[in-house]
Amino acid sequence: MQTDFLNEARRQAEICNACRYCEGYCSVFPALHAERAFSDGDLTQLANLCHNCRGCYYACQYTAPHEFDLNLPQALANVRQDSWEEFAFPQSAARAFQKNGVMIALATVVGFALLFWAARALASAGGEGFYAVLSHNAMVAIFLPAFLFPLASIAVSLRRYWRAIDAGRPTLADVVAGFRAAATMRNLDGGHGDGCNFEDEDRFSNARRMVHQAVMYGFLLCFASTSVATLMHYFFAMPAPYSLFSLPKILGISGGLLLVIGCVEMIRLKLRSDPALGAVHAWGGEVGSIGLLGFVGLSGLLLYALGQTAMMPAILVLHLGAVLAFFLLTPFTKMAHGFYRLTALVADATRKRGDAA
Hints:
Radius of gyration: 22 Å
Shape: elongated
Number of domains: 1
Organism: Primorskyibacter sedentarius
Helix content: 55-70%
Keywords: Membrane, Transmembrane, Transmembrane helix
Strand content: under 5%
Protein name: Citrate/tricarballylate utilization protein
InterPro entries: Citrate_utilization_prot_B, NarG-like_sf
């Protein structure tokens, strides 16, 4: 990891540890105040606990023009982003995406869509709906490896992260506590329930917390839709296409709507926020990954709406291209932060249990 980022984060953490004004803001400050000195692993853990809500910055009396020049959200964002690139497998792909995220996302979606269009020759004879464009067997052969690769890649990354922070062995209670904190996004409530100041210094808002929940639960609903459809196909002999009021469609439409709304609003909030309080060099990668996920949801909704029209084949290959690009790029995009943050929350619960003992 970059020594400059770590040294600057260490300098600021030591000042914050002496001040302790922001102790109740989020999980970062109790974890920070539990230490007397900060190793590289400690700083990496603090960085991944940070949700970049920025409330501490606007409350701080030591920001510029004070000589201490504190900007803890940016310092931790730089360490956090660098840790994702350092632990990623393979590293080169992560660094490339953070520098050129929007262009890589666009090129990958278009490239895969063209490949799917060319692969229409594999369509099954007499297939219905989407399978008239690309056979079920072809979809499984393409997407099963594409689904397994990011899981394996992220597993390697998180193992590297856990070793770096030296968090010890978690218990089931620690894991449950981490999942609970992630599910409620409690670290985005500002410590008092009124929200944070991400997009506006003078106004507390829960908008960022809500759009994060919309994206997370939208994605989980879409994943549930695919999972239910898989079970119906293989175990109940009920292949697609499904009716509008079937469980896969209900889950998919509700999830797609949440994804699109959440991603659009997340980009809007990011555009309104101060870029100097985050990892400036990663802005393109963040917008590219959010936009890609939003397009997955949008193209899926268009398929539902226009699946019986002549536009269906073109929309389907774009949707499949976006889904394939999303899966393959997930370990190197902003989406990976969810796995790191969940792991950091589990590690924090492990630390708290150890301190209590």
